[in-house]
């Protein structure tokens, strides 16, 4: 069953020189999305476990940590200690997605996987019971501010059908190009959670923008 819309602003689009204030500006958000990039899995570099732990101290909102890194199995303990609520790794970066999910759940953290736009969902449908969340990328991972790829919603529809048919609790999240003009389509396809970076942080006042996005997803 589709969950009430969860809005997860990405702090990648925030001004890092005043992170505390930037996080206070999204007080209406359900989760905070933390984008970790290693300069290898994606051609960009963001921050690591220390900044994640800093974010943890700045807010009580659950941290949805998106690992765009190689060898995620080497890092999950560090991010669990840093205070991740959910750890999302990329299936393209591991050979044992089920084993890694079990390791993450063993650390007391929700387990999730993500797929790049070119990666099909079908090979993973049989393993969904090991995951609390699936993150569908609707842009190539690596940078904020890119255009939404509507064809990725086919993956969302496939997932929605599978999750509902099997009565699973796995949430479907979407990431990339989510804004007031795209969120309704993503909600209609079956998404439960929505990452939004530039749409939230480019708004004059991010807090009401989060509420507006939630309203548009609910309709
Ligand atoms: C992209 C990141 C996204 C990004 C979203 O690699 O995973 O979370 O920050 O930014 P927008 O909403 O601007 O597309
Ligand atoms: Zn992300």
UniProtKB/TrEMBL annotation:
<feature type="binding site">
    <location>
        <position position="175"/>
    </location>
    <ligand>
        <name>a divalent metal cation</name>
    </ligand>
</feature>
<dbReference type="GO" id="GO:0004750">
    <property type="term" value="F:D-ribulose-phosphate 3-epimerase activity"/>
</dbReference>
<dbReference type="GO" id="GO:0019323">
    <property type="term" value="P:pentose catabolic process"/>
</dbReference>
<feature type="binding site">
    <location>
        <position position="66"/>
    </location>
    <ligand>
        <name>a divalent metal cation</name>
    </ligand>
</feature>
<keyword id="KW-0413">Isomerase</keyword>
<keyword id="KW-0479">Metal-binding</keyword>
<dbReference type="InterPro" id="IPR013785">
    <property type="entry name" value="Aldolase_TIM"/>
</dbReference>
<comment type="similarity">
    <text>Belongs to the ribulose-phosphate 3-epimerase family.</text>
</comment>
<feature type="binding site">
    <location>
        <begin position="197"/>
        <end position="198"/>
    </location>
    <ligand>
        <name>substrate</name>
    </ligand>
</feature>
<dbReference type="InterPro" id="IPR000056">
    <property type="entry name" value="Ribul_P_3_epim-like"/>
</dbReference>
<feature type="binding site">
    <location>
        <position position="177"/>
    </location>
    <ligand>
        <name>substrate</name>
    </ligand>
</feature>
<comment type="function">
    <text>Catalyzes the reversible epimerization of D-ribulose 5-phosphate to D-xylulose 5-phosphate.</text>
</comment>
<feature type="binding site">
    <location>
        <begin position="175"/>
        <end position="177"/>
    </location>
    <ligand>
        <name>substrate</name>
    </ligand>
</feature>
<dbReference type="GO" id="GO:0006098">
    <property type="term" value="P:pentose-phosphate shunt"/>
</dbReference>
<dbReference type="InterPro" id="IPR026019">
    <property type="entry name" value="Ribul_P_3_epim"/>
</dbReference>
<feature type="binding site">
    <location>
        <position position="66"/>
    </location>
    <ligand>
        <name>substrate</name>
    </ligand>
</feature>
<dbReference type="InterPro" id="IPR011060">
    <property type="entry name" value="RibuloseP-bd_barrel"/>
</dbReference>
<protein>
    <recommendedName>
        <fullName>Ribulose-phosphate 3-epimerase</fullName>
        <ecNumber>5.1.3.1</ecNumber>
    </recommendedName>
</protein>
<keyword id="KW-0464">Manganese</keyword>
<keyword id="KW-0862">Zinc</keyword>
<feature type="binding site">
    <location>
        <position position="33"/>
    </location>
    <ligand>
        <name>a divalent metal cation</name>
    </ligand>
</feature>
<keyword id="KW-0119">Carbohydrate metabolism</keyword>
<feature type="active site" description="Proton acceptor">
    <location>
        <position position="35"/>
    </location>
</feature>
<keyword id="KW-0170">Cobalt</keyword>
<feature type="binding site">
    <location>
        <position position="35"/>
    </location>
    <ligand>
        <name>a divalent metal cation</name>
    </ligand>
</feature>
<feature type="binding site">
    <location>
        <begin position="142"/>
        <end position="145"/>
    </location>
    <ligand>
        <name>substrate</name>
    </ligand>
</feature>
<feature type="active site" description="Proton donor">
    <location>
        <position position="175"/>
    </location>
</feature>
<comment type="pathway">
    <text>Carbohydrate degradation.</text>
</comment>
<dbReference type="GO" id="GO:0005737">
    <property type="term" value="C:cytoplasm"/>
</dbReference>
<dbReference type="Pfam" id="PF00834">
    <property type="entry name" value="Ribul_P_3_epim"/>
</dbReference>
<dbReference type="GO" id="GO:0046872">
    <property type="term" value="F:metal ion binding"/>
</dbReference>
<feature type="binding site">
    <location>
        <position position="10"/>
    </location>
    <ligand>
        <name>substrate</name>
    </ligand>
</feature>
């Amino acid at each position: 069953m589709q969950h009430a819309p969860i809005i997860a602003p990405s702090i990648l689009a925030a001004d890092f020189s005043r992170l505390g204030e930037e996080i206070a500006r999204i007080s209406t958000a359900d989760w905070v999305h933390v984008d970790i990039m290693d300069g290898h899995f994606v051609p960009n570099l963001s921050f690591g476990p220390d900044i994640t732990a800093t974010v943890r101290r700045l807010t009580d909102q659950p941290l949805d940590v998106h690992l765009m890194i190689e060898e995620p199995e080497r890092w999950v303990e560090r991010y669990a200690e840093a205070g991740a609520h959910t750890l999302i790794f990329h299936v393209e970066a591991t050979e044992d997605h089920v084993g890694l999910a079990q390791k993450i759940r063993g650390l007391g953290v929700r387990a999730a996987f993500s797929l790049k736009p070119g990666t099909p969902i079908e090979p993973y449908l049989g393993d969904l019971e090991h995951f609390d969340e699936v993150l569908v990328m609707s842009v190539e991972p690596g940078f904020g501010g890119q255009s939404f790829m509507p064809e990725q919603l086919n993956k969302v529809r496939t997932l929605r059908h599978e999750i509902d048919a099997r009565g699973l609790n796995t949430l479907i999240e979407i990431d990339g190009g989510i804004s007031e003009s795209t969120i309704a389509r993503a909600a209609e396809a079956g998404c439960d959670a929505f990452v939004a970076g530039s749409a939230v942080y480019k708004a004059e006042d991010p807090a009401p923008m989060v509420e507006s996005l939630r309203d548009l997803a609910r309709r």
